[in-house]
Design brief:
alpha/beta, TIM Barrel, eight-stranded parallel barrel, two-stranded antiparallel ribbon, 10 helices, disordered N terminus
Length: 343
Amino acid sequence: MLPLVATGHAAVAGSPALCYQGVNLSGAEYGDRNGVYGTNYIYPSERTVLHFAAKGMTIIRLPFRWERLQPRLGAALDANELKRLSDSVALIRKHGMAVLLDPHNFGYYDKGQVGKAPATNAAFADFWARLAVEFANREGVAFGLMNEPYDIKATDWLKSANAAIRAIRIVGARNLVLVPGTVWSGAGSWEKDVLGGANGTVMLGVKDPLDNYGFEVHQYFDVDSSGTHESCEGADNAVKAIAGMTTWLKQNNKRGFLGEFGVSSEEACVEALSKVLKTMGDNGDAWLGWSYWAAGEWWPPGEAYNVQPQNRRERPQAVALNAALDPKVAASSDCAMVKPATN
């Protein structure tokens, strides 16, 4: 698995520090496939990227729409959209942060579920082969296979994930791959048989010849873990979920990445957020890191989880995130970028 550096005040003795701590910059996943750039969707501005880099964050999860990048399954990537994505990656890397590429499609291409025609596993693998070629072995670029597959059986999703990983490796890309589970890839349900087997059992079948992968999970703090409520009745469950996921990762010698999590500015929510951050910070042997949901220029100012800078004032959630960062890690050449596997 990707090596981490054993530095940083947040790590317990013998535990590496978290290298990858950042945010999702939402915007490129907005709208439908026919959306107009600059009108219906955007990519991050340098001002926003610079803000989070200056805080000491080390990774940006970058959502985008599969259909816009590849308008026809099995065909070439759209040159204009690929350039926008590539330019955004270059901008983020310019400011010293890693990038997690995130096709934000919930396990679908248009209305076709991954694994079924027309979005077959072969089509999914073809997409990843084409995208992987563009970013193969670039330091600072990791591949998130898919955002939140939710209604695919775990056993079926495993086949899709393995097909994509196989395609990525066949084209010679050694980049870190982050693999979600099904059922929204929830940390709290990871070991529960919700749909076609538990992620925590089925996804142990992931096959990567380079063994350069981790599992991406998501966890929200509201009553139903959906990330759609301002209150946080599920805060205790969220804290327990991350603790449980930590145990599972250690027992199975795996690495995890918390790709989405968010809370409102309510005091109890922020307190729970800090507990989750501490759990991960204390267990760098299990966690690669995290990316908070979310920020982005077009996020409504009143959106409860929003940490986009406004009027030069930091929201309480952002203060908690900043407190979890270690400037020594951000400055470390070993932690500033996702390195391709060398084996």
